[in-house]
Amino acid sequence: xxxxxxxxxxxxxxxxxxxxxxxxxxxxxxxxxxxxxxxxxxxxxxxxxxxxxxxxxxxxxxxxxxxxxxxxxxxxxxxxxxxxxxxxxxxxxxxxxxxxxxxxxxxxxxxxxxxxxxxxxxxxxxxxxxxxxxxxxxxxxxxxxxxxxxxxxxxxxxxxxxxxxxxxxxxxxxxxxxxxxxxxxxxxxxxxxxxxxxxxxxxxxxxxxxxxxxxxxxxxxxxxxxxxxxxxxxxxxxxxxxxxxxxxxxxxxxxxxxxxxxxxxxxxxxxxxxxxxxxxxxxxxxxxxxxxxxxxxxxxxxxxxxxxxxxxxxxxxxxxxxxxxxxxxxxxxxxx
Length: 336
Prior knowledge:
The chain is an alpha/beta fold. The chain folds into 2 domains: about 5-30 and about 70-130, no CATH class; about 130-285, Nucleotidyltransferase, domain 5. Helix content is about 30%, strand content about 10%. Helix 3 (about 80-90) packs across helix 9 and helix 7 packs across helix 8 (about 275-285). This is IS1595 family transposase.
């Protein structure tokens, strides 16, 4: 293990008092103002404290009341700042992700609390993908996840899960694009689609891949339409895993290996509705695995304090979950 893989002492994290944990949120939320609070509604730099950890804007036209978590993914939170910090620590130190049941025991909270907390982290990380532009050498591939049929007891009643008519509609394809450059931090972009098809691949490459990049794909027909969009190299996996000149898709397969381990070893099941968020977090873990723990901790805390309040997860257990749409791209069109 690299030395920076343990550059954040867990004893220091778990021994933080509530005031210290709150101070971390303040420093990251208002980092662009030196850690001093300002109004999230109008930007006024001179709010005043009205009671413990709450502020009011001094502008007569605004007078908004706010806290350090107002307008972030943890708006209206009831969990202590220390337990949120502990949850972040658990997430960054788990290479394949954290199960909500495991976190609920660690933090001594209900399963419901741990589940929504982790989903908020995943959704916040997923929002970073909108601005990603991949450069240099980029590999693209798809992996099917979930939708496993339960086998019948008797052999004659069992169905062939490979046939389209026997599928249950829960098997989704994760389309992933990943940079494969030697001396640069490589980034991963994921999209959940129904199956590998040309329209979804075209939409992802057109938006997130630099036109001057070199795209590497396998022999799947879904990537035939990408010829002409960017420079392209194909690797026929039915013949060999690597070309004679060393061209391969090992970088993207490395990410899919992490997905498979998370699926079988941690989560055991990915809901279609939330699969996109799980993939976003696993992609972030893949991208930052060579960064130090201190860097990962700061990056995740910076992310959650700069993302807006989730319209999907705020009030999740008060029927808000019923309004969440499946985060699946259909024929190049984004989810609603």
